[in-house]
Specification:
Layout lengths: L2 E3 L1 H8 L5 E4 L8 H9 L5 E5 L4 H8 L3 E6 L11 H9 L6 E4 L2 H13 L3 E4 L7 H4 L4 E4 L6 E6 L5 E10 L4 E3 L6 H7 L2 E10 L9 E3 L6 E4 L17 H12 L1 H13 L8
Parallel strand pairs: 1-13, 2-3, 2-9, 3-4, 4-5, 9-11, 11-13
Antiparallel strand pairs: 6-8, 7-8, 9-10, 10-12
Helix pairs in contact: 2-3, 3-4, 5-7, 8-9
Length: about 270
């Protein structure tokens, strides 16, 4: 059953050096506060997994948390590149970063396989791309029934998956709605899971299109209002487009980034930019 915890306590207990860690959320409900808490606790040697790594992973990579990134797209949405990510790949700063690149469909199927207890997933994908030549975890497979050539990718089973949601009840059942990605699959595939929420309520009221993660599938829940900022949480907050635009200049410069870490992660209020 899920334990109701503080964010700092949950990260301290669940995220360990050397872990494979997935922070999921697609444009919406991105667990930024949790990512910054992982930075604050100076976790190292992590394999970071995410379908669409954006600025939260740029921050974690720049802070030296990661040794490897498993992903399918990376960028500052609507703005441009991730400069801390680029610096790590091109110049090994602050530490070298290994990358394992997949397609969106490949990553989604890997989570589904992990959540289903299967060793791998099979899909029609990667045809016409160079990814199979550079990514060892993409293999050709022959259908035993039709002889058709398909693609196999291994299951993803993170040590810990972290997501953000709108609310949870006091028993640890989690409710989220709006634009969803693979949050459900990432949680079910993981050995441990942390869900940050906008609020903890006595009872979850029905919402159109909502999904509920039962308390037995979640390790810890932490109430973190605004925990998705600068992404948005439908029904609670809007996307902070100015933050994404301002991040470009901060991420481009090592000294500016170091100042940002000191001023807004290590010594200041989580979630602020300057």
């Amino acid at each position: 059953m899920a334990e109701i915890s503080s964010l700092a306590q949950a990260v301290a207990e669940l995220v360990r050096d050397g872990d494979t860690v997935a922070l999921e959320g697609f444009t919406h409900l991105i667990p930024v506060a949790a990512g910054q808490e992982i930075i604050r606790q100076r976790r190292r040697d992590l394999t970071l997994v995410r379908m669409t790594p954006d600025i939260v992973y740029d921050q974690m990579i720049g802070a030296g948390c990661a040794r490897k990134l498993i992903f399918s797209w990376g960028g500052n949405p609507g703005v441009g590149s991730l400069h801390r990510f680029r610096d790590a790949v091109q110049h090994a700063w602050p530490v070298p970063l290994e990358i394992e690149e997949h397609s969106h469909a490949g990553m989604a199927n890997r989570y589904v396989a992990g959540a289903s207890g299967l060793p791998f997933a099979v899909l029609r994908g990667y045809v016409g791309t160079d990814l199979p030549a550079v990514t060892d975890t993409i293999k050709s497979i022959t259908c035993p029934f039709t002889g058709q050539e398909l693609t196999a990718v291994p299951a993803l089973n993170p040590d810990v998956s972290v997501i953000h949601a709108q609310r949870a009840d006091r028993r640890g059942n989690v409710q989220l709605w709006g634009l969803l990605g693979v949050q459900k699959e990432a949680v079910l595939a993981a050995k441990r899971s942390l869900v940050t929420v906008e609020e903890i309520v006595d009872e979850l009221t029905p919402m159109p299109g909502a999904i509920v993660l039962p308390a037995w599938a979640v390790t810890a829940v932490a109430e973190v209002p605004g925990g998705a900022h600068p992404s948005y949480a439908q029904g609670y907050s809007e996307r902070d487009n100015d933050y994404y635009a301002a991040w470009d200049a901060i991420g481009r410069d090592r000294e500016a980034f170091a100042r940002w870490l000191d001023d807004t992660v290590y010594t200041a209020t989580p979630g602020s930019l300057v």
